[in-house]
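In the previous chapter we treated chains in isolation. Here, by contrast, the input contains two separate entities that must be folded as one system, with a combined length of 596 residues.
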Amino acid sequence: MLFFCFFDIITACFLNEEVMAKQELDALQSLETLRHSASHIMAQAILRLYPGSKLGIGPAIKDGFYYDIDASKPVTEEDLPRIEEEMQKIVNADFPFSREEISKDKAIALFQKMGQPFKVELLKDIDADKVNIYKQGEFEDLCRGPHIPSTKLLKAFKLLSVSGAYWRGNEKNAMLTRIYGTAFDNPKSLREYLTMLEEAKKRDHRKLGKELDLFSFHEEGPGLPFWKPKGLMLKSLLIEFMREQHVQRGYVEIETPTMLRDILWKKSGHWDNYRENMFFTEKDEENYAIKPMNCPGGLLVYQEEMHSYKEMPLKIAEFGKVHRFERSGVLQGLFRVRGFTQDDAHIFATPETLQKSVIEVIELVDFIYKAFGFEYSVELSTRPEKSMGSEEQWEIATKGLRNALDFLKIDYQINEGDGAFYGPKIDFHLKDAIGRTHQCGTIQLDMNFPERFDLNYIGEDGKEHRVIMLHRAIYGSIERFTGILIEHFAGKFPLWLSPVQVSILPVSDKFNDYALEIEKLLKKEKIRINSDFSSEKLGYKIRKAQMEKTPYMLIVGEKEVEAKTVSIRHREKGDGGNLKCEQFIAQILEENKNRS
RNA sequence: GCCACUUUAGCUCAAUUGGUAGAGCAGCUGAUUUGUAAUCAGCAGGUUAAGGGUUCAAGUCCCUUAGGUGGCUCCA
């Protein structure tokens, strides 16, 4: 079908048969090609409007494309419409994309002459004799291709934002201007994508956090969230949910100090490897570090006594508040903060109990994520270049994780060389209501700490053995997870998570007493309620409760007082008729219990 | 940290080319006693993020600081 018209002609001829075979993949590929061509067209437009600009790279990315440019004049978001107009002219001109293969030396000379130093630098790094030059109209660019046959095929595009980006991502290099855009093969898809972006903006947890009065930030503490009553309720409920699971699954819980002397951090290796990200404080000539992780403190607890293989796996949880110095530019709402609570746990295992322990954690992750309606994907990361331990240790450790995944028949992707320096790990990426993914849960096998802290247990043979240690977090950062939940539910939390579950709305203050009676009954059942005794009309009270996204509204007036009932209004289903108060309580308790 | 943008009442936003800072909502007071998404009236609310400069005159132009937003290899 339409697929190959998006390929550059030569490639298309080559791939013709295969293309037919793998339509889906090729649809993706054609979109990628289209976007890549869009980035070339944008570069052409920019060179027209900003002559003398130097081009970096301009790839297609997941949802669009970008081009990095050292612009001759600063480019701001206000300039984007003009650039779009110029791009449209290029599209209308129907320039064919043509490919030419030339020698690398010739290409270097060509781009030198064109005054494109970044391209020259790229060329010098290319390990081939021949390179491709793509041309459309007066514009030519070094490019692997493929491209669409003609500029006219770019039917739906939009430039989105301008930002800074270091040349080749290195802070020591020049800062270029990166212009982001997106393109689709039809206007409808583009519209849908832009609508999705709008939708994402509406459910931005920073916006909803303010509107729903959940949390705040202050200049006095950049990256340090303040939890307000309703937000803290959310956070506490998440912790409570996890604690219930801990009890079910044989965890114990501890709490270790927020700050500990530097000697600990020197021993743990944080002093050498993580100091840049830590906060420090000093008193009586002693240096203290505010903990960026809970593990070293937890290890001191482990070390307090002898451990037997009989207690393994030993599962020690800690909802620890950690602080990390994140660079000011990377802070982002609750997603990236400097102080956060982890649902941390350390599991100490023997080689015999390792696999079982991993399986248990994976099952817990599955249970928790499903409770929120998240789908998720799993990644296994293996030994990186710079790492500690023997090949054999890594082999056993990685196999332990892999066997657990295989045992549970879980699909996972392998990230070769992406593990931590101290061990392999399994990461969980959850998918939210509008298709975005977030990395949250992690299981990391640690071969470093048991060595450094000489952590042992007494085996069946009466001898000391090195213990195996797992770090695990399921929410990850509770702050971040809360942010994700806010966006996932767009602020409409399920009943069990709603800070206010029921609003009681008397039709007029004549019925306040009856409302108070109902309130009492609900409070007894620990239902979180909020009554509106203001002298406003019912419509106003409903609107207010509705905007606060309260799941249930109970309207009480003359009819209800007489019949001893409540009129139920659900935030989405609307008027739900009248029920006896006890009936409503039974219903809501059931819903609450099921976390549905 | 770096690049660009940004910061006006508690919140959302106005304020011609530089010429006395406004509105809605929220708050408070009063009236109203209300039936499924906003009752009416009045009051109060600001060193325009902070500091400096240019100017007869700065919310508006320039500089510094702080906060926020979008980004900072998804590798021709």
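The CA atoms of residues 308 and 539 of chain A lie 65 Å apart. The first helix of chain A runs from residue 9 to 21. Compare these points with the single-chain example from earlier in the chapter.
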